[in-house]
Amino acid sequence: MARFIPGFALPMLLLLASLLNWSLISLLDLMAFLFIQYTASRKGFRVHQQYLISWSVLMLSSLTLLSHAVFHIVLAIEGDHWSTADAQWAELIGFIRVHSWRTLLGEHFLVTQVLATFLSIVEIYGNWFDQNLWWRDFCSGHLCYFVLLIGSHLKGTCCLLLPAVQLIAGISHVSWISFPFFICSSIGLVDWSWTSNYLGIFRWWKYLLFYGGFNIIFLYIYQLPIEFPATFKWIFFHFGLFKISTSSEWSEVCSGLSLLLFYIMVRILNASLYY
């Protein structure tokens, strides 16, 4: 169960925080999530790395909360005209003004940072005392068995769905960026038909994992509240980048979700979440 916190809970909180607020601060959350996923999918992901993950998330979430506290203190001293005059840079960095329920997503973003800080402290506290007492007793109970059972079923489901998700990432939004997913899916299907080896479909996952991580970062940077020059917009459009909004086409939403799901599912298949 202790491995559940750095292996699943903390990365999911980072991902949620990055999706709730398009900003530079959330970009750091996203990059931390991708790094944890990529590191966990490699051999040698052990306790000391999980311990570093907990400390890193604690520092990142604590700095985020501290910077927001300083922002609101300065805002209270300078007045509303200060934030209005510099609203663009504040929005780009990720500072959020909390007004009752009018900034609901912003409040949820701060809540995820608080939860990430709390879980990091819990994980570090458990590791510091070597989990000799109540934490080990808690992990050895029915809840730990229940989590292990879910993990095994989740891996089986990912094994069946990953080829379909990879293919959807390649054909949902046709572009140069998604073209490698389509090519690798086609090669995998041909390999499977010739050799009758289902594992041939997963032959290219290592390369696609690294490639997909960069795609997610570039797509996220394009969502930031930055006005790009027309030339850059033209280049981004022809390569396959797009803005995600309430008016986005279903193919764009499907492409973004399938890309993110592919990255997560590869991590689940190639690294144990619960040691």
Describe this structure in words.
The structure is a single chain. This protein is mainly α. The protein folds into two domains: 1-134; 141-275, no CATH class. The chain has twelve helices and no strands. It has helices spanning 4-20, 24-40, 47-78, 80-85, 87-93, 104-128, 134-139, 142-171, 179-195, 205-223, 230-239, 250-270. The longest helix is centred in the N-terminal third of the chain and has 32 residues, at 47-78. The protein is flat and about 70 Å long. Residues 131-137 have low confidence and may be disordered. InterPro entries: Piezo (IPR027272). The chain crosses the membrane at residues 12-36, 57-77, 109-130, 142-168, 174-192, 204-222, 250-269. GO terms for molecular function: mechanosensitive monoatomic ion channel activity; monoatomic cation channel activity. This is Piezo non-specific cation channel R-Ras-binding domain-containing protein. It comes from Vigna angularis var. angularis.
Short description:
Keywords: Membrane, Transmembrane, Transmembrane helix. The protein contains 12 helices and no strands.
Distance between the termini: 8 Å
C-alpha-based Rg, rounded: 21 Å
Helical content (DSSP H or I, runs of 4+) = over 70%
Q: Biggest β-sheet, characterized?
A: none
- What class do helices, strands and sheet pairing give? mainly alpha
Q: Report the sheet-strand fraction.
A: under 5%
The number of helical runs is 12
Number of beta-strand segments:
0
Average predicted confidence as pLDDT: 78
* H/E topology pattern: HHHHHHHHHHHH
Low-confidence stretches: 131-137
Shape: flat
**Count of discrete structural domains:** 2
